[in-house]
Structures are given as C-alpha cells and as structure tokens.
Amino acid sequence: MPVFCGNVPHNFVFMQDKQCTLKKRVSVKGAGLHTRQCGTLTFNPAPINSGIRFRRIDIETQPIIEADVDNVIDTARGTTLGKGGVKIYTVEHVLAALRGMGIDNVLIDIDVEETPIMDGSAKFFVEAIHQAGIVEQNAPRNYLVIEEPISYKNEVLGIELKIEPADSFQIDVKVKYNTRVLDEQHASLHDLKNFESEIAPCRTFVFLHELETLISRNLIKGGDLTNAIVFVNRNVSSEELDHIAAFFKKPKVTVKECGILNNVELYFENEPARHKLLDVIGDLTLVGRPILGKVTAVKPGHFSNTSFARKIKHTLLY
Ligand SMILES: [Zn+2]
C-alpha cells in the first residue's frame, strides 16, 4: 500500500505502482551551459527509499547532495544545488527526465560542477534511462497526495503556481512574454506517459538581448547555437548577426520569419511553453517525493518553482 501523507480522499483510487530504479548504470557526457565544464553524468541503480541523489565523484570525499529543495542555493539561470560548499549547476532537466520516466531511486555520479546541457532538453537523459532499462522495486511508490490547494504568488511579476487534488500528476502552464515574437503560450501534460514524446524533447530558449548580455558577462561559455532556441525580439543589424556568428564560430546566422535564429527548427509551435513545463516538473521533483495533484503555473521560473516546491514540502511534510 502506498504511504500517504495525511488522510486519503474517500474517492481516491489507490495507485498500486511500485518504486523504480535503473537496471544498470548508464552515462551521458557533455559540456555544461554556464560553466563550460565537460564531464560525465552517470545514473546508478539505487535502493528503495533512497530517492534521487547527486554525488560529486571528482572530489576526494565524494560528497552527496540530495535532490531536495532545501539544498537549492541559486536559481539565477537554472537550478543549482549546494551543500557544504559543493555545488551542482543546472539540475532541472535531469530531474525532469527522472520524474517523467518514473525513476524514484537513483544515485547520479558527476565529475564536474554542472550537468551536461546536451541540446537544452531532457531528451538525452530519457534516452539514457531507456538504454539502462527501468526496474520495479519491491516497495510501493511513496506518493505525496495533495488534499488541499497550495499556492504561491508574486503579484508584482504576475507569477502564480498552485496545486490542487487530483488522482494523477498533471500540469498546465501559461507563459507570457509581451514580445512580438513570443507572447502568450500554453502547454499541458495530463498523463506522465506522454512526457517522453511531448515534453522531453523541448529545448530551452533565450531572447537575443539576454544572450548578448550573457556573452558580454562571460556567462554562457558552453552554449553554442545548438543548445537553445534564440528569439529575436527587435531589429538586428547584419553586423550584430556577424558578431554572434563569430562568437559561436558559425559562418553565418540569420533571423527566420517566425523570429528565431536559424540555428534550430522548432519541434512544436509552443515549444517554449512546453520547456517551461519541463522545468516545472524538474523543479517540483525537489519536493523529494512524486506528487499526486494538478499543477497550474502562470509565468513559472526557477525561483518561483523552487519557492513553490519548498512551500509544498514544508506544508505537507512538517
Ligand atoms: Zn530548462
């Protein structure tokens, strides 16, 4: 029988699924987006009730950092975990892949400070999980059941996240950027079975002006033009485009009619909203247990997602 927090709603259908881990270890190699550090991330099978944990194997003591919202130390350009002075940057896409594929217990070895960005999505982590295989463990999945709505709001920024009771994990996301090339978009996931095909391939995105700021501050060393969709929300001169092309060591870049740089093709018209949904899944994984509830997120970002995750955890688990 699953372990529930508090009373189970009388009409709730018991989920009988079991905890899962990987059949064998599997690795993903690549460079981090912000640190440019090239490293190897390895998913290892882990025992029941051990949860999702990172281990920095490049450090002699091999410190472990639990994927727990109380270990979040920064959310400026991604979600960073830290403990005892040891950090791991950009954990959200890895965590989304694990939650989306139903992995409860895994020890993630990493030999640098940042996870590989790959193409800016969760696709490569999902493929690695498939390659390793998923195995059920002899223990019920430890769901966190939402019985009363919980919400987080930032009225100044128009951000709102809430979660309500539901018998599965569901998410609706709305983003709004008030720009010519990217305004309001919606994305939904009402069954985690569709995570792999509908959400996992959706890549991160950036506006050109943000990219220029990141480049000038030396904050996007690892990003090349295959790591992100770049939205161009103002007129840019051919000199500026040449400058960007030179930075990324490309012969030429142009702006397509839909307002994105020609480095990539969109997989879905609402790929940005789908990626924000992916980030919400990754950040909410930091609650530490799989949630049963329906999430509605308006203008989510890593700071609000992790603040919301902290509120859920501390409302229900303490
Ligand atoms: Zn992301």
Describe the structure.
This protein has 318 residues and is an alpha+beta fold. It has 7 helices and 18 strands. The longest helix has 15 residues, at 302-316. It has helices spanning 92-100, 123-132, 195-199, 208-216, 238-247, 271-284, 302-316; strands spanning 18-22, 26-31, 38-45, 52-56, 64-66, 72-74, 80-83, 86-88, 106-110, 134-140, 144-145, 150-154, 159-164, 169-176, 184-189, 205-207, 229-231, 291-298. Helix 1 (92-100) packs across helix 2 (123-132), helix 1 packs across helix 6 (271-284) and helix 6 packs parallel to helix 7. The structure holds zinc ion. Zinc ion is lined by residues 92-93, 204, 275, 279. Residues 92-93, 204, 275, 279 line the site of zinc ion (ZN).
Q: Which consecutive residue ranges, at least 5 long each, have pLDDT under 50?
A: 1-15
User: Rg, please?
Assistant: 20 Å
Q: In this structure, how is the largest beta sheet organized?
A: 6 strands, mixed
How far apart, in Å, are the first and last alpha carbons? 22 Å
Structural class given helices, strands, pairing? alpha+beta
Residue-averaged pLDDT, rounded?
90
Unique bound compounds: zinc ion
- Give me the strand/helix succession: EEEEEEEEHEHEEEEEEHEHEHHEH
Strand content: 25-35%
Q: Considering DSSP H and I runs of 4 or more, what fraction of the residues is helical?
A: 10-25%
Q: Estimate the global geometry from the Cα principal axes.
A: globular
Number of strands: 18
| Helical segment count | 7
